[in-house]
Amino acid sequence: MRNLILILVSLSLLSCKARPPRHPDEFLDPVTAAMVSNVTSPIIFARAHQDVAANARQYVNVVAASVNRSGHYEYVLLVYIWSTVDARLGAGAHPGETVVFLADERAIRLQRDGRSLREVGIARPLLPPLHFRGSPRVYKTDRDTLRFIASARHVRLQLEGDQDARPFDIWTDGRRQLGTLAATN
Amino acid sequence: MRSIKALRHLPAALLGALVALAPHFVTAQGRGIGAPQLQPQGPSRLIDVIDIDEKESQVDITLQFNCSLHYAGHTPANEGPEVRLRLRIDRDCGVTGSLAAGGEITTEIPPISGPRGIVAAARLESSLGGEVTLTLTWAKPESFVLAQGASASGMRIRLLRVHEEKTRVLVTERGETASNYAVNLESQRQPFDAGAVEQASKRLQTKAFVSEVETGGEKWYRLRAGPFDQRTVAEGVLRTATKDYPRAWLAVGDDSLTNDPNAAVAEPPLPPVEQMGSDPPLDAAQLKSLLDQARKAMRTRDYPQAVQVLTKLQRQPEFPERADVQEMLGLARERSGEVAQAKAEYEEYLRRYPKGPAADRIRTRLRVLRAASVAGRTGSFDNTEGADHGWKVSGGASQLFRRDSFGTDLNGPLLSTVVENAIFTDADLYVHKDGERFTTGFRTNFGYAKNFLPRDIQGATDRVRITTAFFDLNDKLLDLRGRLGRQTTINDGNFGVFDGAKVSYRFAPSWIVRATVGMPVDNSGDGIETDRRFETLAVDFAPALSHWDTSVYVTQQRNDGLRDRQAVGTQVQYARPNLSVVSYVDYDTAYQSLNALVLLGTLQLPDRWQLTMDLEHRNAPLITTENALIGQPFTTLSELRKIYSEQQIADLARDRTPVLSTYSISALKQLGERFQAIMDVFYTKLTDTPPSGGVEEFTGTQGNDISYQVQLLGSSLLRTNDFNQVIVRYDTTPTYNVLGWQYISRFPVFGAWRAGPRILFQRKVTDTGYTSIFYAPYGHIDYQRHGHVLEIEGGAELGKNPAGLEIGNTTRLFVSIGYRINF
Questions:
Q1: CA distance A56 to chain B (A)
Q2: Per DSSP, which regions of B476-531 are E strands?
Q3: B662 contacts B68 by C-beta, under 8 angstroms
Q4: What ipTM does the predicted assembly reach?
Q5: Whole-angstrom Cα distance, residue B138 to residue A163?
Q6: Nearest CA in chain B to A140
Q7: Nearest to B715 among A47, A84, A160 (CB)
């Protein structure tokens, strides 16, 4: 019995060991014929982070991906802006096209790419939030920027032109996965 | 005070039932689930009005109740697109029957008074444990603090409107459009020393410099190499730099040495400024006199005069206030529309006082002025020029139809009676003019309840209410504000509706003194009542840039020549992002009785836990001499004085005032993006009151009432923006236990339509062995667009009671249809 307990405790401790982030998902897009790699989990930003009581909250899911077309790599961020707030309040309306990542001391401003997701080389939305309709916003970026965001100590996000000027704070931290994507693609 | 008045004005039959059932109401307990005491009555509502008062840095929302509703908790804690308040109904609300079952409270759409664009919708509906839930939906997400004050006849919610600065993103990455580049080697929050700059320069064989930037409200120092005109050169340096500076990155036109969008605006040479010391020095008294003149001119917005005096001071040799003079001069010129001169004065300040106390804000103003120069090409940067200073009219109107029937099969077949059948019509008007110096306004909120029940039923009459009708004048220059007319208050120790005047004056930046005189009215349908008068003096203190504020008041009220109330009180509130505390104390100095001691705190913990604690100890109702009328066959104190002496009346008032203690603790855990769980424990104790003056003994809670509640909330589960809530609650008291659960949902149907089915189930077991069961399905649909609301609700409440309770099986059916339009 004692041995069994020891084994169970050992297994429990082993399971606690930090696992490295999974290798990015990589697939050949059947529609665009591009090789697409994307993070295994998004960075999720939320507004009003300090108030955990607010069940109704606005979120921004950021999914990084690289698109390899015949050796030409392109890095994009797919941005899903969604909310659990009653849509009739207009909380889901974000007329601005620019997102700003406040990564430590840098304010990395990214202009929305005018291309559709398919034109970028991705046929279907990657890691969309549940119930999200339509296509994500696409922002073109580069590997260094992804690396910088992944290694920044403090990252926030702002939607330029938004009526609510408060930044979004990280809700679910996917920076390790982002760092892995930037390092391996 | 107000609750007693409400008790006095209840129909005699209802009052009799209340006296008999009072302990049960307070403890959310009826004699049985679905009790048949419900009688036809006139139209009534729990919430009289939701009054909005918008100020410069905050919005005060006063919830004016028609009876005592005790605060029992709220979510979210202090921020979000809506707030859901749980309120416990007290005995003076005139609701008989099965409060424990959550029944007999029909959905309300409370009237909203005040400026538009703050509260988008309000809705009150019944909940478990004899509570009601008031949901206020904000027009946009808000930060707020709230707590119930000394009286349960109202509540105040304060929306915190910290002056929203423009986005502080001062750095831009403009891609290929910029012409200058730099390599950012390192960034830190402390300044770099000269050695670091020199070392970087040596390592990279190029110029190095330090720039500053404010990002997300934080100041950063950047060690940089450059600037470079060509990207390829900068990229070459970056490659070299990464060996020693692994976090180096290419900066494109993002500081004043490269291509700061603010600094790079081509500007004509700025006009010269007056030279310091070019005039013979004045003595200290003359300098002080000129300074006073300048400040007065600034206050009165006489900018030409201010510029003239400040320029004189500017020519003086250095003196202690000269930096202030330099800033004021820039400000005066800016406000005079002399932008170029203003910039020159600001730059002179930065040149002469680079570390002066105003240096940071002057840099900001300079940036704004430069940006304004750019923005001027596409439009005005400053909206104040085009501000509309004319009269503005806004308002709204709403109607709510309610029909409610109640039946029991106690005497055989089900016998139903229509207990409410009425249309509530409410209107709100807000007329105001926001001038350069004065804000003038008039606000009124009134309503009419048309009753369709037979006229021979006692209390079933049509009712008119005028809750607010006042003129408001605000002198922004003197910081003096006055109101005259009928208004509502729950501040400064006054609670309810009164006719009178209120004046407030900000005599120092952090201090406001406020005086109120008035005559309370029993209910908003009454005219001016002169038998009661009160006077109140209050002082608010809110230190600048602090997280707390406080208010202290003294108040006294006379009623029919007797001292009704004489109290002192204070309120302190403290709010930080992870902690908020609100505290109220009200003490009656005449009765030497602690009227209310309230402490409500919310603490954010790691891992998305939140803890809320509410400790309340209060007289219920607030002790006043008028409490002596409770249970008496008289309606005024003068009638009572014919029988009792003043001392005896005071003793009766004490005897009729029980003490209510409520303590609750609530823990909340956010689970992922869509779920949260809330666990609550409530403790309630109400003391007994002795028999005296012909009034029977009042039995309190007969021990400790404890409730346990668990809630699970989920959003966007089945459809986008849906809302689901499951509540399980267990109430235990010395005489009965109730187990209940409730499911509440709201989900979009199409367009602006939402549907919201609810279902409630409760099982009650008394200590005498009786078991009652109650279940209630509700259906709700609403349409909401551009602030217009249409709501339809129907429901049934079915009670199954054992024969021994002599209640019979009960059936209640109700329907309500309401709409609100705004203009």
A1: 7
A2: 480-489, 496-508, 511-520
A3: no
A4: 0.78
A5: 14
A6: B175
A7: A84
Phi, psi for B701 (deg, rounded to 5): -85, 0
CB-based contact A155:A170 (threshold 8 Å) = yes
pLDDT tens-digit readout, B436-464 = 678 899 999 999 999 998 888 877 888 89
Residue type, position B283, single letter: D
| DSSP count for chain A of H helices, then E strands | 4, 10
Residues 144-173 of chain B with CB under 8 A from chain A are: 164-167, 169-173
- Taking the alpha carbons of B690, B696, B700, B703 in that order, is the dihedral positive or negative? positive
Question: Half-sphere exposure (CA, 13 Å, Cβ side) for B821?
Answer: 3
3-state helix vs strand vs coil in chain A, percent to 5:
20, 35, 45
Q: In angstroms, what CA-CA distances link B409 with B420, B455, B662, B774, B794?
A: 20, 26, 37, 15, 22
Q: For residue A47, give the nearest of A76, A85, A79, A77 by alpha carbon.
A: A85
Enumerate the β-bridge partners of residue A138: A78
User: Percentage of chain B surpassing pLDDT 90?
Assistant: 31
Classify residue B66 by its DSSP letter.
S
Per DSSP, the residues of B350-416 read HHH-TTSTTHHHHHHHHHHHHHHHHHTTTS-S-GGGG---SEEEEEEEEEEEEEEEEEE-TTSS-EE
Residue in A91, A105, A109 nearest the CB of B220: A105
B674 vs A163: CB contact, 8 Å cut-off? no
CA distances from B420 to B6, B406, B796 (A): 19, 9, 15
Which of B721, B747, B753 to mutate: most A Cβ within 10 Å?
B721
Interface test with B, best of A84, A168, A170 (most B CBs within 10 A): A84
Instruction: Tell me the chain B residues in contact with residue A160 when contact means C-beta distances shorter than 8 Å.
Output: 167, 169
pLDDT at A50: 54
The answer to whether the Cβ–Cβ distance between B215 and A84 falls below 8 Å is no
Query: Within chain B, how many helices (H) and strands (E) appear?
Result: 11, 35
- Taking only the tens place, the pLDDT of each residue in B587-615 is 999 999 999 999 999 888 888 888 999 99
Q: How close B220 gets to chain A, by Cα (Å)?
A: 6
Q: Is B177 on the interface with A (CB under 8 A)?
A: no
Q: Which of B375, B417, B420, B416 is nearest to B402 (CA)?
A: B420
pTM exceeds 0.95, yes or no? no
Spatial contact of B200 and B193, defined as CB atoms under 8 Å apart: no
Q: Which of A176, A85, A18 is nearest to B79 (CA)?
A: A85
Question: Is B628 an 8 Å CB contact of chain A?
Answer: no
pLDDT digit string (tens) for B577-588? 778 898 999 999
Tokens of B766: 């008394």
Q: How far apart are CA B157 and CA B238, in angstroms?
A: 54
d(CA B102, CA B18): 17
Q: Which residue type sits at B460?
A: A
Query: Among residues B580, B666, B549, which one has the least CA distance to residue B78?
Result: B580
Find the CB nearest A55 among B173, B247, B713.
B713
Shortest distance between the Cα of A83 and any Cα of chain B, in A, equals: 7
Answer for the pair B184, B171: CB distance below 8 angstroms, yes or no: no
H-run or E-run covering B2: helix B2-8
Residue of B nearest to A90 (CA): B140
The answer to whether A131 contacts B716, with C-beta atoms less than 8 Å apart, is yes
| C-alpha A142 chain-centroid distance | 15
93-122 of B, contacting A, C-beta below 8 A: 120
**Total number of residues shown for chain A:** 185
DSSP letters, B639-678, are HHHTTS-HHHHHHHHHHT--EEEEEEEEEEEEETTTEEEE
Question: Residue B331 is inside which H or E element, if any?
Answer: helix B322-335
